[in-house]
Amino acid sequence: MADHISIRKASGTWVVRASGAVLGESSDALELTEGTSAPVIYFPRSDIGMSFLELTPSTTRCPYKGTATYFTVSGPDGDAVDAAWSYEEPTESLNAIAGYIAFYSDRVAVEKL
């Protein structure tokens, strides 16, 4: 793992909401911290209502984490394009986030309960 990235189990229970509707809740979330950036909460796919997410053609490449794929999140007030991402096949050193999804907190609500 890159020296500037750390992953640990997120304490407590976390919820993600779109337009107030709960998309998922987890007590098995992970917290990824990269450098001086704010921590990002990664939710296990099994704890997310995947019917609210639609894969988009968007991708980005991080030299440390791998290639991210993006999802549009559908909520009662409409769609938030590319509001979630996942590393389907992360780099070996960050394999802990495989099968997890993160969300942009400026597009959906990510909160600790």
From TrEMBL:
Q: Which domain of life is it from?
A: Bacteria
InterPro entries assigned: DUF427 (IPR007361), DUF427_sf (IPR038694)
Domain DUF427, which positions? 15-105
PANTHER family, per the entry:
BLR5716 PROTEIN, DUF427 DOMAIN PROTEIN (AFU_ORTHOLOGUE AFUA_3G02220)
- One Pfam family here: NTP_transf_9
Task: Write the protein's name.
Answer: DUF427 domain-containing protein
